[in-house]
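In the previous chapter we treated chains in isolation. Here, by contrast, the input contains two separate entities that must be folded as one system, with a combined length of 612 residues.
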Amino acid sequence: MLAKVIAARTVRLIATLFAVSLLTFLMVEQLPGDPILAILPPEALDDLDNIERIRKELKLDDPVLTRYFRWVGDALQGDLGKSYITDQPVSDAIKDRIPVTLELAFLATLMAALLAIPIGAFSAYREGGYFDRAMSGFTTAALSIPGFLAGIFFIWLFTLKFNWLPSTGWNRITDKGLFANLKTAILPAGALALAPLAINARLIRADMIGTLKEDYVLSARAKGLRDRYILMRHALRPSSLTAITVFALQLGGLIGGTVVIETVFALPGLGTRLISGIYQRDVMMIQGITLFIATIYVVVNALVDILYVALDPRIRRQ
Amino acid sequence: MSHLFRRFGRAFLEMPLVVKIALVWLVFIVGAAIYSRLDRILGQALPLQDPFYQPFLFGEAKPVEGPSSAHWLGTDILSRDNLSRLLHGSWVSLIVATTVVVFGLTVGGFIGAFVGYTRGKVETLTMATLDVILAFPPLVLLLALVAVYKVRNLTMIALVFGVLGIPTYVRIARASTLGVASREFVQAAEAIGTKRRAILFREIIPNIMPALFAYALINAGFVIVVEGTLSYLGLSVQIPEPTWGNMINEGRRDIRQTILPIFWPGLFLTLSVVSLNLVGDWLQQRVAVRSSAL
C-alpha cells in the first residue's frame, strides 16, 4: 500500500516539476519583443558585439521548446546557466548562498516547534484561563505582523535600543564558530519564526483540547499521575503526528519566506541574491533561483505527503 | 432594503467587542482611502485639506517633528506629514486587496462551483493546472513575475495579484461545492428536472458564497501583507506614490533618528490585517454554524 502511494506521489511530483519549470521558463519567454531586451539591462544594449555574442551563446534563434528542453536538460545536470551581468554560474551562486538560507529556515522551524509545544499544551490545559487568552491575543498579532516588519522592529529594539545583537551581517559557523554564528542568526530566525509559531501553538492547543477529553487521559489522572506527566506523555504523543508533518511543511515554505528577511538583515543568502538579481534584471539568475526554490518547495511537500501516510497507520489502511 | 439593514444591524450587535472595533477600523481605512483620492476623481479641492491632501508636501514643517496639532502623527525626514501619507497609502492596499477579492469571488468562485458540480475531465484538468501555480511559494512567484515586467503601476500590480489569487478560491469553492451538491435540496431540484445551469446559479453558488466570503476577508489580510512586502522591497507601486510598504522602506534609512515613519505605517498595516483576520474568523464561525444547520 505504502509503495503504491509513493509511486503515485512520485509520478505527480515529476509532472508538477515539469510544469513548474515550464512556467518559470515561459515567464520570461512570453514577454513581447526581442528576448534580448528582457535579458540584458538597458545600459548593455549599445554594445552590439556583446548582443551578437549572447544571441549565439543562448541560441536564441532556436524554437522556444528546443530552448526550454535544453535549459531543463542542463538544469538536471546541475547547470542553470550563467549570469549575464556578473558571468557567475547560477549554480555556483546557489551553492554559495544556500547554507545561510537553509540554516535560517531550519532554525526558525526549530524555534517555532520548540516554543509552540509548551505554549499550546499549557493553553489547552487551562483552556479559557488568563494564559490561554493572552496567548490567543499573541497568536492573532503574530499571524498579522508581516515578517519584514517584525525584523525591523527586532533590529530597532535589540540593536539600536539595547545594543545586544548585531543588526546585519553573517558569521559563518566554519569561520567564527557556532556562538558567533547564532548571534547573527537569532534575530532573523526569530522574525521568521513568529507566524509558524502562532500556527503551531494554535494547532497543538486545538488538538490537545480534544485529546484531554479522552478516556485514557481520565484514567491516567485517576491513577494519580502528575499533570505535567500526563500532558507530555499521554496527551502530546498522539498529537505529535500532525505536528511533525506541519513542521516539515513549514520548513519548505520558509525556504521561500526567508527571501525578505534576508534582505532586511542584509544576509548573504539565496533570497538577497534573488532580489539583487531582480534589481539588475539578471534573468538567468531569477529563472535559476526561482526554479531552485520552487523545486525544494514541491519536493518537500511531496515528502510530507508520503511521510504522513507512512506515519499514520489509519491513513495507510484506507 | 431596510430589512437588509436590520439584519446587518442585528449581526453587528451580536459581534464580540473586538470584532466591532475591528470592523469600525476597516470602515475608517476604506473611507479614508477613498476620500484621499476623491479630489482627483472629482477634480476639485475638498474640505479636510489638512489631514488628507498633503502627502507629497515638503511643507514649512521641520523634518522629524513629533506629533503636534499641525501634524498629528509627526513628519518624516523630508518634513512630509506622516498622517496624510498614511491615509493616501491605504488606497494602494485597498485597491490590491479589493481586486484579489473580486477576482477570487467571481472568477474563482464560478470556476470552482462549475468544476465541482459538473466533475469529470474538466475538473481534473483545471485542478491539475491550478496545482502548478500553487506549487510555487507565493512570494517567489510574485517576485519572478514583477521582475519580468518593467511597468510597476497600481493597475498592473493589482492585476498580477488578482490573477495569482484565483487558484485558492477555486479550491475552496470546489471543496464546498462538493459538500453542497450532495445535499437534499440539490437532489430535490435535480429530481424535479431543474436545468443544471439553474441549479448551479440558484442552489450551489448562493450556498458556497458565505464560506468563500469569510475566506476572502482573511485572504485580503494576507494580500495586504504580501503587497506591503513587495512595496518594502521597492517592487510594487513606485515612489513618490506612498504605500505603507514603501513608507516603511523609506523610513528604514532614518531609523537611527526616528522610528515614527516606520512605526505608523507598521501599525496601520498590522491593525488592518488583525481586523480582517478577526472579522473573517468571526464570519467563518457563523457560517460553520449556519451550514451545519442547513
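The first helix of chain A runs from residue 2 to 29. The mean pLDDT of chain A is 81. Compare these points with the single-chain example from earlier in the chapter.
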